[in-house]
Amino acid sequence: MDATSLRRGGNDLLAILPEATLNRMAPHCSRVSLRMGDVISEADRPITSAVFVENGVASLFKVGGPPDTEVALVGHEGFCGIPIVLGGESWPYQVIVQADHLTGVEIAAATLQHLMADDAVLRRILLGAVQVRLVQASESLISNARQRLNQRLARWLLMYRDRMRSDQLPVTHKDMAAMVGVQRTGVTAALHEMEGHGMISSRRGLVTILDVPALLALAASGYGAPEEQQARLLDKG
Predict the structure, then answer these.
(1) By CB distance 3.0 to 4.6 Å, which of 83, 97, 150, 155 could disulfide with 219?
(2) pTM of the predicted structure, to 2 decimals
(3) What is the dihedral of CA 146, 222, 235, 11, to 10 degrees?
(4) Structural domain that includes position 61
């Protein structure tokens, strides 16, 4: 790979890295193509590589329960492999492909750590991306504690839309139940309510967003803080 390919592939973090950094990274990178359900890294196992997502969505799950619970979403705005950046080897979360198809740029964990040690800009941007993810996870906790189910679901649909870059969201009721930590019947009822207000349309395996402003109003303070952090990171470059 070369620097131009990395910059133009679709990942927001790679797009703002300096040419010199990309030139150092490129010889160690390769493209990956994964399908829904593919595991990017296992819980409590050494994470051997980072994946900078270009298209598609990955989910961080706390496995076990039941049900399994989503911790965070990752798309073109970030990367999978936070413990690598923080100097760790593993964490208690499984990372899997959520959307139909995910493409990205993969780099070995040891190589990325070596590059970070010698490149202050790379280190700053990746740590900034970690901060964005921490804010996202924290806001999820706040939303789960304070907001009604339909508000939490609106928040998640907006986040998923951001990462899919589409109003057509391939997702099942079962998947959404795991995302917001409730039973599937609760999600079905909330979706029917949203449909009744013209915010979405829903059929088997697909949710179509029809009214973004209405979803934003419903999500209220549950949506926006991580997105603001991400915008600041990209503006600083």
Answers:
(1) 155
(2) 0.93
(3) 110
(4) 3-141+230-236
